[in-house]
Design goal:
Layout: H1 2-32, H2 44-58, H3 66-85, H4 92-95
Length: about 100
């Protein structure tokens, strides 16, 4: 049971990091390629910018909401890391309690 919980926590942490990294990289791409030499209506860079914007919108994070989502994900990740590395003894034997009659 404990291994399943740990695997879920690790998977959640990886997913949060992936979402944060993807949103940062897409925003960086949009910002750096916003003023490019456009070749016309079939510009491949404009198409990639539209794809990046659509991906961010599909994640439910418009450019204005991105900061809030990153803050929430970082709080979740910090809590998961705290829970994973917190060792709490669960039995009286682990606590080394002397049992008297």
């Amino acid at each position: 049971m404990k291994k399943k919980q740990l695997l879920k926590s690790i998977f959640t942490l990886i997913l949060c990091v992936w979402v944060i990294a993807a949103s940062f990289l897409l925003m960086l791409f949009i910002i750096t390629h916003l003023k490019h030499d456009c070749t016309g209506p079939n510009c491949p860079i404009c198409e990639q910018i539209r794809n990046a914007e659509n991906f961010l919108n599909q994640l439910g994070m418009g450019l204005g909401k991105n900061i809030i989502a990153i803050f929430i994900c970082s709080i979740i990740c910090a809590n998961i890391l705290h829970i994973c590395f917190l060792k709490i003894p669960h039995s009286l034997v682990q606590l080394r309690v002397q049992l008297n009659n």
